[in-house]
Amino acid sequence: MTNVIRLLPALLLVALLIAPGGSFAREGDSAVFSLQPVRYDPERPATQSYFIYDAHSGQRFTDEVRIRNTGTHAGTARLYPVDATTGQNSGPVYLSQADPRHDVGAWMKLEQTEVSLGPGEERIIRFTVAVPPDARPGQHLGALVAEDIKLKQGNTQGALQINLQRRMALAVQVNLPGPVVEKLVLTNVESAVQQGYQLLLLGLRNDGSEMVKATGTLRVTDAAGQEVQQLALTLDSLLPETEIDYPVPVATQALAAGDYHAVVDLTYGKQGTVHYETTFTITSQQVAQVYTAAGQQLPPLAPGATLAPALNGTPRLMMVLALFVSAAMAITVFIRKRRAT
């Protein structure tokens, strides 16, 4: 796992998406595509919002998805399946079309990969799911994506021009029978500084077969044994066979340079627990990065706040968060010199 987390570009992307009065094309001036299952199970309300299948290895089945243009202009959407992974701050995120597909994204095939719709028009698209005979037991997650083929070009402000490509992702969860294994592993605790904030990175890996959420605490003591941090942890879903460096902002006062002892206790899934202890070092160079030129420390983050944007969420919330989840992966930022006036 990398020891460096690149949060600033992602923060910029989300800021551009949600900032009021942004310079890119307004939603009302373009096609806006939504996805929804055609059928759902009344005994499983979540299936109104995304697909959940209880299948078995080697099974092949078909279903249908509804795509609707809720915008005021005609447009064309590109349709394709993708895999899911665990986001930096936990919770599922959906990969891009260019990323290799090895899981649910590789199992799905759409009968139609491009559709043009007028305002208010909708279409039903059939797709097939073919589960490999050697697929592992447990939960698998991917998505169907509708991507507007038209790139929204914003106005140039200074040397920055932002182009936005709108994407909508609809989660597809496939559950396969077999032993239910919930196993969350802590691998390390390391220090880092990002955007002027001191962070502790928790190495987390899901070696089980199920998606699990976790809560717990991170306690830090200095070389004298004095407790200097006690931080509450609340993690969204971690997908099977994925790992992340989960960023935890240091609260209140930045830690001084030196050696520290970390103790992490987590409760996860139905009855899983994990206890982990290790040591880490904060360097004088890292301490210098958390202070401004005037020698002032940045104000502490609010409890529970994170530096990375909310590019994650449970599949249940996918219909609400899809624009933020997947559009960030499709934004292209062009830096160019300002033309002489």
Structural write-up:
This protein is mostly beta strands. The chain folds into 2 domains: 8-179 and 311-335, Sandwich (Immunoglobulin-like), CATH 2.60.40.10; 184-289, Immunoglobulins (Immunoglobulin-like). It is 9% helix and 45% strand. It contains 4 helices and 20 strands. The strands form 5 sheets. Strands 2, 4, 5, 7, 9 and 12 form a 6-stranded mixed β-sheet that branches. Strand 18 (258-268) and strand 19 form a beta hairpin. The protein is flat. The model is unreliable at 1-27 and 308-341 (pLDDT under 50).
Strand % is: over 45%
Radius of gyration, taken over Cα atoms and rounded to an integer in Å = 22 Å
Element-level helix/strand string = HEEEEEHEEEEEEEEEEEEEEHHE
The CATH architecture category of the largest domain equals Sandwich
What would CATH call the homologous superfamily of the largest domain? Answer: Immunoglobulins
Low-confidence stretches: 1-27, 308-341
Calculate the mean pLDDT score and round it: 81
- Report the CATH topology name of the largest domain: Immunoglobulin-like
Q: What gap, in angstroms, lies between the N and C termini?
A: 47 Å
Secondary structure: elements and pairs:
Layout: H1 8-18, E1 33-37, E2 51-54, E3 60-69, E4 75-86, E5 92-94, H2 104-107, E6 108-110, E7 114-117, E8 122-130, E9 138-148, E10 152-153, E11 160-164, E12 167-176, E13 184-194, E14 197-206, E15 212-221, E16 227-238, E17 243-249, E18 258-268, E19 272-282, H3 284-289, H4 318-327, E20 332-335
Parallel strand pairs: 2-12
Antiparallel strand pairs: 1-3, 3-8, 4-5, 4-7, 4-9, 6-8, 9-12, 10-11, 11-20, 13-14, 14-17, 15-16, 15-18, 18-19
